[in-house]
Design a protein that fits this description.
Layout lengths: L1 E7 L7 E7 L6 E10 L2 H8 L9 E2 L3 E9 L11 E4 L23 H5 L10 E3 L2 E2 L1 E2 L9 E5 L3 E3 L6 H4 L5 H12 L7 E5 L3 H12 L4 E6 L2 H10 L3 E4 L4 H8 L7 E4 L4 H9 L7 E4 L14 H4 L3 E4 L7 H13 L9 E5 L4 H9 L5 E5 L1
Helix pairs in contact: 4-5
The chain binds nicotinamide-adenine-dinucleotide (NAD) and zinc ion (2 copies).
Length: 367
């Protein structure tokens, strides 16, 4: 079939919205008609050419939500008409990682996905017979996509899909960092560095876990206000004196749980140093620049602080995303403040401009 899609033709250049060919789903694959898709930093990062593992031409986009239009042979967990959220982090439920509660890093299709292919090593996307690669296994800046069954989460059909799309990446990452990776405990003190989509999700996750005090640190007053709306009890401007201020607020000890959601290694260090001696746990979610390293004075570790990274918030997508969507539907998570701008597919590059200007939390493309 012919679909309209935003193609990354050349690194550092705007995406080109055009007609491309999409073949039908093969065994184990599903055709999804996209309804909404968020525009995320990872798309912009890849488009810029800064990501050394990037490839072109490819159809970008990974925060998709839509409706199943057709299923391939052997697909049993999804049916035509189901509402789904796309998963760049799949869940096969069979690999050694999927059957272990400690990680969400499914091993089933990693290699092919990283290279822009579907699990059988080919693409369904093409133009004039030339293959176009599938970005992050999702390629959701498009009217439709073909994805593996194991990379689609079936969600409550009553959930509006433009909100559901946010659970495909940043929001679940933040929520999951607090709920799965750190396992924030009731009554605890938490500090979240960064109040973008991920940090605000972490604030909400700390609240859902019953944290007593949630301090959010950011450079933007507007974003700190959003953090209050998600449950932050205190807010603070970022800067060199933040660790000192947090120690002052916590009787000199630091916080039980800290979260980094900025991608800045200097802030990651602050998050480690703001964690309490004895048991403080720092969870890193930000993606640092190529070649950057995190500097930690070992004494911080010897005296009982722990540091953990979190990919997609440790969420096993097919089980975890529908459960988070249910909590949204139950009124426990407030998604509306994150939906800042609605765009058409043709306006996708404007989504990058808005992100660059830090205008709003998420721009969402409506198809
Ligand atoms: N681990 C994962 O699976 C995963 C998934 C999605 C995104 N990410 C990464 O998470 C990070 C955050 O993503 P986002 O979409 O929320 O980004 P964002 O750019 O919207 O938010 C980052 C925030 O950090 C703030 N900030 C900048 N300097 C600061 C400082 N010194 N102290 C405190 N705050 C400061 C900014 O004001 C901004 O609000 C990025 O690095 C992104 O690549 C990781
Ligand atoms: Zn993303
Ligand atoms: Zn797996």
């Amino acid at each position: 079939m012919k679909i309209r899609a935003a193609v990354l033709e050349e690194f550092g250049k705007p995406l080109v919205v055009q007609e491309v060919d999409l073949a039908g789903p093969q065994a184990g694959e599903v055709l999804v008609r996209l309804v909404a898709c968020g525009v995320c930093h990872t798309d912009m990062y890849t488009a810029s050419g800064a990501d050394p593992s990037g490839y072109a031409p490819t159809v970008l986009g990974h925060e998709g939500a839509g409706v199943v239009e057709a299923i391939g042979e052997g697909v049993t967990s999804l049916a035509v008409g189901d509402h789904v959220v796309t998963l760049f982090s799949p869940q096969c439920r069979e690999c050694v990682h999927c059957v272990d509660a400690r990680t969400n890093l499914c091993l089933a299709i990693r290699e092919q996905q990283n290279q822009g292919f579907l699990p059988d090593g080919t693409t369904r996307l093409s133009r004039d017979g030339e293959p176009i690669r599938h970005f992050m296994g999702t390629s959701t800046f498009a009217e439709a996509t073909v994805m593996p069954e194991i990379a689609l989460a079936k969600v409550n059909p009553e959930a509006p899909l433009e909100g559901a799309a946010l659970f495909a990446c940043g929001l679940s990452t933040g929520l999951g960092a607090a709920m799965n990776t750190a396992k924030v405990t009731p009554g605890s003190t938490c500090v979240v560095f960064g109040a973008g989509m991920v940090g605000l999700g972490a604030v909400a996750g700390c609240r859902l876990q019953g944290a007593e005090r949630i301090v959010c640190v950011d450079m933007s007053d507007e974003r700190l206000e959003l953090a209050r709306g998600q449950g932050a009890t205190d807010t603070m401007k970022g800067g060199d004196d933040v660790v000192e201020k947090i120690l002052e607020m916590t009787g000199g000890f630091g916080a039980d749980f800290t979260f980094e959601a900025t991608g800045l290694v200097a802030v990651m260090r602050q998050a480690v140093e703001a964690a309490r001696m004895g048991w403080g746990q720092c969870t890193v979610t930000g993606v640092a620049g190529k070649g950057e390293t995190l500097d930690i004075v070992p004494r911080y570790l010897i005296t009982g602080r722990r540091v953990a990274g979190s990919s997609f918030g440790g969420v096993k997508g097919r089980d975890g995303v529908p459960a988070l969507v249910e909590r949204w539907m139950a009124g426990e998570i407030d998604v509306a403040p994150f939906l800042s701008h609605e765009l058409t597919l043709d306006e996708v590059n404007r989504g990058f401009d808005l992100m660059h200007a830090q205008d709003g939390i998420r721009s969402v493309i409506r198809f």
